[in-house]
Amino acid sequence: MTLRGRLALRAAAAAAWASQKAGRGKGSMIGGLIALKIDPTLLQQLGRGRRTVVVTGTNGKSTTNRMTAAALATLGEVATQTDGANMDAGIVAALTARVDAPLAALEVDELHVPHVCDAVDPETVVLLNLSRDQLDRVGEINMIERKLRAGLERHPDAIVVANCDDVLVTSVAYDCKNVVWVAAGGGWASDSVSCPRTGEPIVWDGPNWRSTGSDFARPTPDWRLDDDNLHGPGGLVIPMKLTLPGKANRGNAAQAVAAAVAMGANAEDAVAAASAVDEVAGRYSTVQVGPHAVHLLLAKNPAGWQEALSMIDHSVDGLVIAVNGQVPDGEDLSWLWDVRFEHFEGVKVVAAGERGTDLAVRLTYAGVEHTLDHDPMRAIASCPPGRVEVLANYTAFRDLNTSIAKENKRDV
């Protein structure tokens, strides 16, 4: 570390301490921001000498990164985020928290991947999926594909663990020399109807796909899933039963295991570690709120919402869907019309959040009987006592967790 780098770390520690004393949270983000202002090269210094995995994609970054970190922990101490902070300040905070850890698993926002990779020189890059997400912030999805492809060209020796069921991800990794292909699934194909390289239509034949205008096609996977097992190279078959729900999380786990194995982990140990992950920064957790056992799910874009809706237990006593439209969520909520909500007969549904009215209109057109209460806590309280599923987008999820924590603290 340079003298300026050490000064930046001391300033970050002081800022975190002040934030905690003021009751404003752990202070890791403000510490990271201040540290980078003092020394813009800090990320490169902190990443030097570590064996690092970078995890990116539109959906599943936090979950896959958590599983990857768990699997890598079978090899040694791992520096990683615990709160989903996937831009520079959050990454610096994670690396600062475990300066001496020889391994790192870093969740990275798609737009930040090229320069983060340039700074930390990852040994492995995990590419999950690419789909439309917050167009007012992220931009057009084929542009993201081109930026990621160009970024990986600067790291030709990196091992790339890529989902071959996703057309755009396959295009990013297609020219890389060290690719581990994983059939991780791709339930959302609405953003991959044309070849990102030629513009020609993509034709599907069962799980396989190909471009009509070139030899660009789905590669043969090195790792694949069935309902009970993870299949790997050389005829490897490992039973895999996850704690987390959903088909998408099985795909996330497959890529996490493939990345850990590429880094030298034992496959069986990696599967066991990834399977034991039971919550990710509050996601998938169940908390008691008065007479309600509240199961919390997070979704942030059409593909994520469609997958999260498939995890809803229709035997629950209530379903609260909370939507905000703040900058971190994307202020344009027209994507609500791309999500299929028509599956909740017999379930009490409550629309909530700052943009609850927009959601209520969408639910009306979907034929879903519902009520409207903009306050998610009141929406939960309006449900019959028992189990309540809550599906929320980013700031709605964040604010609800804060409200629940305050409510339960008052009850203690």
From TrEMBL:
Pathway: Cell wall biogenesis; peptidoglycan biosynthesis. The active site is at D332. It holds the Pfam family MurT_C. Residues 55-258 form the Mur ligase central domain. SUPFAM superfamilies: MurD-like peptide ligases, catalytic domain. Residues 298-396 form the Lipid II isoglutaminyl synthase (glutamine-hydrolyzing) subunit MurT C-terminal domain. The lipid II isoglutaminyl synthase complex catalyzes the formation of alpha-D-isoglutamine in the cell wall lipid II stem peptide. The MurT subunit catalyzes the ATP-dependent amidation of D-glutamate residue of lipid II, converting it to an isoglutamine residue. PANTHER family: LIPID II ISOGLUTAMINYL SYNTHASE (GLUTAMINE-HYDROLYZING) SUBUNIT MURT, MUR LIGASE FAMILY MEMBER. Belongs to the MurCDEF family. MurT subfamily. HAMAP family: Lipid_II_synth_MurT. This is Lipid II isoglutaminyl synthase (glutamine-hydrolyzing) subunit MurT. The gene is murT.
